[in-house]
Amino acid sequence: MNTMLRKSVLGIAGLAFTGGIFAGPVAAHAEPVNSTKPVAVSVQGAQSKIDLNDEQTANAKAIIAATKKAGLPERAAVISIATSLQESKLENLGHLGDANDHDSLGLFQQRPTSGWGTPEQITNPEYSTLAFLKGLKQVDGWQDMPLTEAAQTVQVSAYPDAYAQWEQQATDIVHQHWNS
């Protein structure tokens, strides 16, 4: 190896080594790189939380499975679960008689008369979740907007800000069950 080439290689190696010494301590204290976008954009306001029974947990897992089937990220599952927590407390509600809100049914309190599907479809957790997600995908920028705004755009609720109170619990549920 000629002298000039050897000096160049040694010089580059020296710079790389020096850079590693100085950058190493900084990199060692840096936050780990997360390749996925955080599922909570920003939790807004006071948060509510309920204890889930086996049926509610199974419904949350069904929402997560349907979200994965739709090819959507964890954030979509968080929005879906928070919406269901608000609408039905993750209970797959049938017709409630006089206590029914119009003809609202299922996990998302979707209405057959509003075109969400038949009562049988709406009370099927996978179908109702996929129907909700179809509406969510039509909302421009849903991934980056506040949860309550994304949910409200799909649901058109009389209580548009109510979804926000469930974001933390929905996020926790998704974190717990996404990879299980």
Task: Supply the key terms.
180 residues; mainly alpha; 7 helices; 53% helix; globular
Number of helices: 7
- Taking all Cα atoms into account, the compactness measure Rg is 24 Å
List unreliable stretches of 5+ residues.
1-38
**How many runs of DSSP E, i.e. beta strands?**
0
Q: Span from first to last CA? A: 57 Å
Largest sheet: none
- Which shape, going by the Cα principal axes? globular
Structural class: mainly alpha
Strand content: under 5%
Write the element-wise H/E pattern from the N-terminal end onward: HHHHHHH
Q: Average pLDDT across residues? A: 81
Please give the share of residues in helix. Answer: 40-55%
Task: Describe this protein's structure.
By secondary structure, the chain is mainly α. Helix content is 53%, strand content 0%. It has seven helices and no strands. Helix 2 runs antiparallel to helix 3 (74-88), helix 2 crosses helix 5 and helix 3 (74-88) crosses helix 7 (167-177). Mean pLDDT is 81; it is low at 1-38.
